[in-house]
Design a protein that fits this description.
There is one protein chain. By secondary structure, the protein is an alpha/beta fold. The protein folds into two domains: 244 residues, Rossmann fold; 103 residues, Alpha-Beta Plaits (2-Layer Sandwich). It is 35% helix and 29% strand. A six-stranded mixed beta sheet has the order 5-6-7-3-8-9, sandwiched between helices. The longest helix has 18 residues. It is globular, with a radius of gyration of 26 Å.
Length: 350
């Protein structure tokens, strides 16, 4: 069963076209001209119930516009939407009882009253029974460690504390579908990790469907098995994160620094049965490219441990998701892999 279904969705906006000069300004007062701008251009996708899906794109790609249509804030220009069995903009009152929304840069909590009072008001807005509310609140407060924050006004919370409270506010009515728009923006790594773990637990325990938009691709790697990528209002990739990595990743590079001379032909002979590619600047420094489907340990086992080969340093380098996405946006397509490593350089770890 699909929690979200989108068919040939379009959203265009009219943007006023300003004519130049004094004459043009006077003309604009009486006869305005508009250009139509397509923010979302004929996109289709479905998200099964219980899936965590990443929805990514550069600024202006159409992410927020899509989320606003999926949550009923905007009406589509054309196309079909079904979210949890409802058409969002047509059945908004019933629909909102089934969804939770967190916008990283906007708050649904009241600024000057205590957090617990905001939760109480939201309970009434969503029509949650007193017993269900207490049970759900206790579970969320304990899981997100909010006990000491409940009596504080929202304006006195740090960003990390507020975001944990925003999550509780969005989940008090136990929605089956949650939309998260930049939920970890501006947070430190510890708070980000806590929120990611909480979202994974919520999905595992309650089967909550999550659509996540973010610029932090570590959120995607930590939470999502699937990613939908937008560029200029169109979907340019929809599939598994592992597939994206295998299609675009450059494999793994192992760099060796030797304490004595180790000629390139010797290294090639040691790995002659493996489909790897060696390069060397000199006899003291060499690099081998290991395809994604091959284990790095297979290569290391062939080289390390020989008495006549003194290794002083080994560095293992992989193509990161950030680099892969950057490559895709540079080419404008996710269908044809690039053979070049991105300009930003690979991510290294010893």
């Amino acid at each position: 069963m699909n929690a979200i279904e989108v068919e040939h969705l379009n959203k265009t906006f009219k943007v006023q076209k300003n004519r130049g000069g004094l004459k043009g300004a006077l003309q604009d007062l009486f006869s305005r001209q508009y250009n139509e701008v397509a923010a979302v251009n004929d996109i289709s996708f479905s998200i099964p119930a219980g899936e965590i899906c990443g929805y990514i794109g550069e600024n202006g790609a159409g992410k927020s516009t899509t989320i606003k249509m999926l949550t009923g804030i905007l009406v589509p220009t054309s196309g079909k939407l079904n979210v949890g069995g409802y058409v969002p903009h047509e059945e908004r009152e019933k629909f909102v009882r089934n969804i939770g929304v967190v916008f990283g840069q906007r708050s649904q909590l009241w600024w000057d009253i205590g957090v617990i009072e905001s939760f109480g008001l939201l309970r009434k807005v969503y029509g949650v029974g007193e017993n269900d509310y207490k049970k759900r609140l206790d579970e969320l407060v304990q899981r997100l460690d909010l006990g000491e924050l409940l009596s504080r006004p929202v304006r006195k919370l740090s960003l990390g504390q507020r975001m944990r409270c925003e999550l509780v506010a969005a989940l008090l009515h136990n929605p089956s579908i949650v939309f998260l728009d930049e939920p970890t923006i501006g947070l430190d790594i510890i708070v980000k990790t806590e929120i990611r773990e909480f979202l994974k637990d919520m999905n595992r325990q309650h089967g909550t469907t999550i659509l996540l938009t973010t610029h932090d691709l570590q959120d995607i790697e930590a939470l999502c098995s699937r990613v939908i990528m937008l560029d200029e209002g169109r979907i340019i990739y929809d599939g598994g994160l592992d597939t994206l990595k295998s299609r675009w990743g450059q494999g793994t590079r192992i760099t060796f620094q030797f304490g004595n001379h180790c000629p390139l032909p010797r290294l090639q002979a040691l790995t002659s049965e493996l489909n790897v590619s060696w390069t060397a600047d000199n006899d003291l420094h060499a690099e081998v490219l290991v395809p994604g489907e091959m284990s790095v340990s297979d290569v290391l086992a062939r080289v390390v441990g020989h008495a006549d080969i003194a290794i002083t340093d080994i560095k293992i380098t992989e193509t990161t998701t950030d680099e892969i996405v950057r490559q895709i946006y540079q080419t404008g397509s996710a269908t044809v892999p690039t053979s070049a490593v991105s300009e930003g350089g690979p991510h290294s770890h010893a």
